[in-house]
C-alpha cells in the first residue's frame, strides 16, 4: 500500500542527484557573472571571443544548408509533377528558405514526364531522412543568424560604453541607433545624460553590490545544506529565521522568508538548465530559436527538478518531519507526496548527507 510513496521517493532521489549538481554550479556562477558584469573590458573581450566562436558555427551552418539545398534541388528535378512521390518533395520544399524555393521553382519544367525504366528515383525512406535534414539545417542556420545579430549589437553597445566613459559632455552617444522604435515615455525620462550616468557610473557599482548580496545568499545556502540535519542545536540559518518568526506568529515574515529562499534556489538551479548543452544538440537558445527536441528535454528536466527542490527547501527550514523528528502538522507537499519515512535508508541517509556534496561542486566551479 506504500508503493506510490516508494515510486515518488525513487523519483525524488534521482531529482535530488540532478538538483545538487545544478545547484553547485549556480551558487557560484550567478554571483560571479554579476561581478564580472561590472568589468567592461572583460565583457567586451568575452563578446569578441563568443563572436569568433559563433562565426565558425555560422559558416558551418551556411555550408551545411547549401549542401542540403543542393541535394533537395537534385531530388526535385528528378521527381516530376506526375510522380507519386511528388507530394513528399513538395512537403520538403515548403520547409526550405524562400530564396531557395524561388530558385528551384525557376529551374522546374512542368511538362516533362518521368520514365520509371530509365531513371532511378529515391525511396520514400530516403525522402524522410532528407526532410529531417532540411528541418535541422534550416533551423540551425536561422538560429546562428539571429545569435550573430544579437552578438554584434551587444559588441557595438559595449564599445559605445567604452568610448563614452571618457566623454566630457556626459551625454551617451550611440554609434548605431536601434532599428526598433523606442517607447516615447522611456525616451522622455531616459535621456542621453541619464543614460550616460547609468551606463558609465552607476551600473558597474549596482552590479558589484548585487554580486555581494547574491554571494552572501550562496554562502548561507551552502552552510544550511551542510548543517540542516542538526536539530539540537539548530544550525541551518533558514530554519533559525523561520523558527524565530514562528515564536512571534509573524506570518507575513514567514511567507517572505520562504518566498525569497525558494526564489533564490530556483534561480540557481533553473538558470543552470539554460546553460546546459548536451552534445551541442539539446540546449536552450534565446529569442525563440530553440528547437522542439530541446524544449521537450528542458521541460522534462524542469518537471523532474521541481519536487526535489521543494523537498530540499522543507529540509533546510526543518518543516519536514523526517528532518525535524517532530509530530507537527504535515505540510501540503508531504500530504500529497507521502512521507519519506517509508524508506528509512533514503530518508535518514541519502536525503541528509548527499546535499553536503554541494560544497565540493561549488569549489570545483569556483576554480
TrEMBL record:
A GO biological-process term: adrenergic receptor signaling pathway
Lineage: Eukaryota, Metazoa, Chordata, Craniata, Vertebrata
Parts of the chain that traverse the membrane: 6-28, 205-223, 252-273, 293-316, 342-366
Family as reported in the entry's similarity comment: Belongs to the LIMR family.
Pfam families (UniProt xref): LMBR1
GO-annotated cellular components: membrane
Subcellular location: Membrane
Top-level taxon of the source organism: Eukaryota
InterPro entries: GPCR-associated_LMBR1, LMBR1-like_membr_prot
Name by which UniProt lists this protein: LMBD2 protein
Major localization listed first in the record, in broad terms: membrane
Keyword annotations from UniProtKB, A to Z: Coiled coil, Membrane, Transmembrane, Transmembrane helix
Segments forming a coiled coil: 51-78
Amino acid at each position: 500500500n506504500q508503493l506510490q510513496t516508494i515510486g515518488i521517493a525513487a523519483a525524488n532521489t534521482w531529482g535530488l542527484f540532478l538538483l545538487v549538481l545544478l545547484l553547485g554550479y549556480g551558487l557560484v556562477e550567478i554571483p560571479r557573472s554579476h561581478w564580472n558584469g561590472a568589468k567592461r573590458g572583460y565583457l567586451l573581450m568575452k563578446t569578441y571571443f563568443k563572436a569568433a566562436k559563433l562565426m565558425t558555427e555560422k559558416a558551418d551552418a551556411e555550408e551545411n544548408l547549401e549542401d542540403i539545398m543542393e541535394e533537395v534541388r537534385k531530388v526535385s528535378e528528378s521527381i516530376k509533377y506526375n510522380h507519386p512521390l511528388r507530394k513528399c518533395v513538395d512537403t520538403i520544399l515548403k520547409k526550405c528558405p524562400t530564396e531557395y524555393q524561388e530558385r528551384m521553382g525557376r529551374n522546374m519544367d512542368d511538362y516533362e514526364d518521368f520514365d520509371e525504366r530509365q531513371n532511378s528515383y529515391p525511396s520514400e525512406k530516403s525522402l524522410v531522412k532528407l526532410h529531417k535534414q532540411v528541418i535541422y539545417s534550416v533551423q540551425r542556420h536561422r538560429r546562428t543568424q539571429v545569435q550573430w545579430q544579437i552578438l554584434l549589437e551587444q559588441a557595438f553597445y559595449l564599445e559605445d560604453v567604452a568610448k563614452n566613459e571618457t566623454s566630457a559632455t556626459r551625454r551617451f552617444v550611440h554609434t548605431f541607433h536601434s532599428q526598433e522604435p523606442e517607447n516615447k515615455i522611456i525616451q522622455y525620462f531616459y535621456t542621453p545624460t541619464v543614460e550616460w550616468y547609468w551606463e558609465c557610473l552607476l551600473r558597474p557599482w549596482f552590479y558589484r553590490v548585487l554580486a555581494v548580496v547574491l554571494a552572501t545568499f550562496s554562502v548561507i545556502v551552502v552552510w544550511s545544506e551542510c548543517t540542516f540535519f542538526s536539530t539540537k542545536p539548530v544550525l541551518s540559518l533558514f530554519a533559525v529565521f523561520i523558527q524565530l518568526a514562528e515564536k512571534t506568529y509573524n506570518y507575513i515574515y514567514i511567507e517572505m522568508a520562504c518566498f525569497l529562499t525558494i526564489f533564490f534556489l530556483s534561480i540557481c538551479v533553473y538558470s543552470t538548465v539554460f546553460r546546459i548543452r548536451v552534445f551541442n544538440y539539446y540546449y536552450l537558445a534565446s529569442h525563440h530559436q530553440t528547437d522542439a527536441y530541446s524544449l521537450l528535454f528542458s521541460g522534462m528536466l524542469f518537471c523532474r527538478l521541481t519536487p526535489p527542490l521543494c523537498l530540499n527547501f522543507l529540509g533546510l527550514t526543518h518543516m519536514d518531519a523526517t528532518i525535524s523528528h517532530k509530530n507537527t502538522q504535515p505540510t501540503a507537499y508531504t500530504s500529497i507526496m507521502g512521507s519519506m519515512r517509508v524508506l528509512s535508508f533514503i530518508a535518514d541517509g541519502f536525503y541528509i548527507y548527499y546535499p553536503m556534496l554541494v560544497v565540493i561542486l561549488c569549489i570545483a566551479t569556483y576554480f
